[in-house]
Amino acid sequence: MKPEFLKPVKVFFVLTVLFCVSFPSTSLFAASQQMTVIGTASLRGFLDPHPARLDLDGDGKKEKVQAGGIARLSSLIKEIKAENPEGTVVLSGGSDLMRRYFHL
């Protein structure tokens, strides 16, 4: 049985490939331009920040932090798009709308 988390990764990969090959062939030889791809998957309805223990600096110790939150995600996406406004694409692998806001 395949792990469930691989499905959004496959969808993200396929959408990225389709996006990249959808340009006319002449644009492939035009002046190079940086492209930024932002991907999300399995947000699972974490619209509000939540406490988490994460190893943020790679030292093996997990720190207590506030993670997630749609407002934080929106701010990060806006910040990244400001650096490359014409060449930024945001893709979602799905499983975004879940949890208490969407299940009664």
Cα-based radius of gyration, to the nearest Å: 17 Å
Largest sheet: 2 strands, parallel
The N- to C-terminal Cα distance equals 29 Å
Percent helix range: 25-40%
Q: Tell me the fraction of residues in β-strands, as a range.
A: 15-25%
> What structural class do helix, strand and pairing data support?
alpha+beta
The neighbouring-strand order within the major sheet is: 1-4
Tell me the domain tally: 1
Low-confidence stretches: none
- Output mean pLDDT: 77
Description:
There is one protein chain. The protein has helices spanning 6-21, 25-28, 70-83, and strands at 36-40, 50-54, 63-67, 88-92. It is an alpha+beta fold and 104 residues long. The protein has a two-stranded parallel ribbon. The chain has a two-stranded antiparallel ribbon with strand order 2-3. The mean pLDDT is 77.
Concise account of the structure shown:
The chain has 104 residues and is α+β, with helices and mostly antiparallel strands. It has helices at 6-21, 25-28, 70-83; strands at 36-40, 50-54, 63-67, 88-92. The longest helix is centred in the N-terminal third of the chain and has 16 residues, at 6-21.
SSE layout and pairings?
Blueprint (H helix, E strand, L loop, with lengths): L5 H16 L3 H4 L7 E5 L9 E5 L8 E5 L2 H14 L4 E5 L12
Parallel strand pairs: 1-4
Antiparallel strand pairs: 2-3
